[in-house]
Write a structure and sequence with these properties.
The chain is mainly α and about 150 residues long. It contains three helices and no strands.
Length: about 150
Amino acid sequence: MNNSNMPTLPTKGDVKTGIDKVADAAKGAVEHGHDAAKQAGSTASNLADKAGDKAKGAADQASSTLGTISDKASEYAHDAKKALQNLGSEAGEVGEKAQRYATEAYDASAERLDEYTKDLSNLVRKYPVQSVLVGFLAGMLLSRTLRA
């Protein structure tokens, strides 16, 4: 029988480390997305403020015949500013939701790992001799695999 084709089972530590790495990466991505969304909203708001200020300054310099046009430009700039502020706010909320979902996924994974550990511990208590034999065989297979 060729043992090189046998898959190796990850240890509890490997599984936990893997879960922790995935959860950390997810949290980092969510935090980065959240920060980027807030920064985009802030930048958009600043641009809308600048656009509104420039439109208002141009309207002040225009003649009385351009008064109506300047009022409309200012109104549009204000509406654009509101729309961009709403967009930034909504982007921040999406980032917060994603962060919450990542946290929930991490917590659920940790709970499942705890359940798995308890089940395995109960199984070893229920079948101690068989568990020792399985551990011994796994150790032999691992040593043969590492030597090869």
